[in-house]
Amino acid sequence: RYYLISSFLMLFLTAAAFYLLIRLMKNQQLYAQAKLTFTSNMTHELQTPISTISVALESIKKYHLIDQPEKLENYINISVHELQRLQSMIEKVLKQEQMDLGETQLQLSLIDVQPILQQVISAMDVQVKAKNASLVFLPSDEPLFIKGDAMHISNVFYNLIDNALKYSPARAKIEVSFSIADRQLTISFKDNGPGINEIYLQQVFERFFRIFNQDNIHNVKGSGLGLHYVKQVITLHGGRVDLHSKAGKGCNFMVILPLYEEN
Ligand code: ADP
């Protein structure tokens, strides 16, 4: 009997080990696949500004634009703009790398979330108008203080509103609102875009993850790093990010942060 139990146990353990090994391999395979896609997306995205700059410079040379100040200025402006874009893409990848290595130190101070959010919203006004979208902000009457890193928190807001705009069709309606319960602040970013299929609700926060089989979405460029960054920053602040969504039903990203309490 002892022999039977121990052989059964051995069999069970071997099967469990085998199962875990296969899962690990599958995860690594998925990760390698995601990383490969990321590299090819990124290469593609880096190539666009580089070729624009090189066409601009070649045209200056070929058509002697040095003698035509107006055209020259136009080509220089285009090049400077594309260089800035390149720089910000590279910074984004480097920042993410630092964060993944645990090298990011938050610069914590007492911050009021509301003016930070308002600043991000005004900075995005041009993008909102360009898409004929409407961004409704429902302010709170009281100050909303947290212990946080203003720069990272502002990036989080930017990423979530940017996604809502990017993935929604024209005339999107985005709503940003606050609520407070049990000394926790919830900032909700709601859109009426294509939404996310329930099976991806966790995965969208993984590094490099993008949904490929959702019709209109992936003509949109991206790196699959935005939501991973959002989750990391909010977790480092002692909070969490919840996502409610269904395919075709829009998204509601909820950033939940502990409110500052005076002792
Ligand atoms: P990126 O936008 O660079 O692809 P993110 O990490 O910000 O990377 O988002 C991961 C994926 O989640 C996106 O590729 C997209 O498929 C999906 N997603 C994110 N935000 C939204 C949204 N508001 N509506 C629909 N899909 C979204």
Automatic annotation (TrEMBL):
<dbReference type="GO" id="GO:0000155">
    <property type="term" value="F:phosphorelay sensor kinase activity"/>
</dbReference>
<keyword id="KW-0418">Kinase</keyword>
<keyword id="KW-0902">Two-component regulatory system</keyword>
<keyword id="KW-1133">Transmembrane helix</keyword>
<dbReference type="GO" id="GO:0004721">
    <property type="term" value="F:phosphoprotein phosphatase activity"/>
</dbReference>
<dbReference type="GO" id="GO:0005886">
    <property type="term" value="C:plasma membrane"/>
</dbReference>
<keyword id="KW-0812">Transmembrane</keyword>
<protein>
    <recommendedName>
        <fullName>histidine kinase</fullName>
        <ecNumber>2.7.13.3</ecNumber>
    </recommendedName>
</protein>
<dbReference type="GO" id="GO:0016036">
    <property type="term" value="P:cellular response to phosphate starvation"/>
</dbReference>
<keyword id="KW-0472">Membrane</keyword>
<feature type="transmembrane region" description="Helical">
    <location>
        <begin position="2"/>
        <end position="22"/>
    </location>
</feature>
<keyword id="KW-0597">Phosphoprotein</keyword>
<keyword id="KW-0808">Transferase</keyword>
<feature type="domain" description="Histidine kinase">
    <location>
        <begin position="41"/>
        <end position="261"/>
    </location>
</feature>
